[in-house]
Amino acid sequence: MQGSLMLDIGGTWLTAEDRQILRQPEVAGLIIFARNIEDPRQVRELCASIRALRPDLILAVDQEGGRVQRLRQGFVRLPAMRALADNANAEALARQCGWLMATEVLAVGLDISFAPVLDLDHQRSAVVGSRAFEGDPQRATDLAGAFIEGLRAAGMAATGKHFPGHGWAEADSHVAIPTDERSLEQIRAADLVPFTRLAPELDGMMPAHVIYPKVDSQPAGFSRRWLQDILRGELKYTGVIFSDDLSMAGAHVVGDAAERIEAALSAGCDMGLVCNDRAAAELALSRLQRLGVTPPAQLARMRRRAFPGTEYRQDPRWQTAIAALREAQLID
């Protein structure tokens, strides 16, 4: 069986316990959070120490812009993506944001930010809200596509989330189990549009912890109907499928962490995330060790394709991008 685990650490440096768990071959990724971050230099040193131990690990962060931005001290405070849409040159600004974000993330030694958000802003979901580019599916697709162009130009793989769309369900899957009662036809006509059109450009995809009862009784991240029949089959998606955090309340319908990661991989995920709960991560790891999983080869496509170096702010493209965002009053 193919599959792997992404987990996190507690502090700004690796402990002996961290080193021991990161040596396990079933662990193929690590995500950092605000508690792991002091400034760019410290993040670079942390990433270097991780790569010295496991050079093959995928190192990730959530650096979307707006309120979801883990790297702050010493980094550009990007706008929420929804703020771009009202500008006449919104696509150019989205491209600049993608390039800026990716450049800073790559420069400290990380591989990916889990971005862009492809959910639609239906004015219903507080957890999505301004993280979405737009409420109109065509407009959201165009803006997200431009953002992806910026990511790729900087050397970062793009990960679309939260398939097939979290914007209609009102509950927050971090603390509840959201449901979306619409039919598959309604979802296809709206929320699936960005995922369908951008699937060829996405190296990673993250499904939602949302139940769509008219399609399947399981949340999308545990659903073979969504992941195998629709995402892989109909959309012909060939990239990496990451689970959303299996510690979130929206994942608890499946059981404990061991049952959740097995269910996610069985449904079609390539990597299960278990965050903010080391005991749960250890339980998930034990299950993967018993299953005898091997990390899928396509994880390699998520590794950074460029390293900007530490003097990237001298790059004329950097200065042009910053100037454009300042002129639009999107950053200070």
From TrEMBL:
Keyword Zinc-finger found: no
Binding site for substrate: 62, 70, 131, 161-162
Domain Glycoside hydrolase family 3 N-terminal: residue ranges: 15-281
Superkingdom assignment: Bacteria
Active-site residues (renumbered): 174, 244
Matching PANTHER family: BETA-HEXOSAMINIDASE (PTHR30480:SF13), BETA-HEXOSAMINIDASE-RELATED (PTHR30480)
Task of the protein: Plays a role in peptidoglycan recycling by cleaving the terminal beta-1,4-linked N-acetylglucosamine (GlcNAc) from peptide-linked peptidoglycan fragments, giving rise to free GlcNAc, anhydro-N-acetylmuramic acid and anhydro-N-acetylmuramic acid-linked peptides.
Protein's name according to its UniProt entry: Beta-hexosaminidase
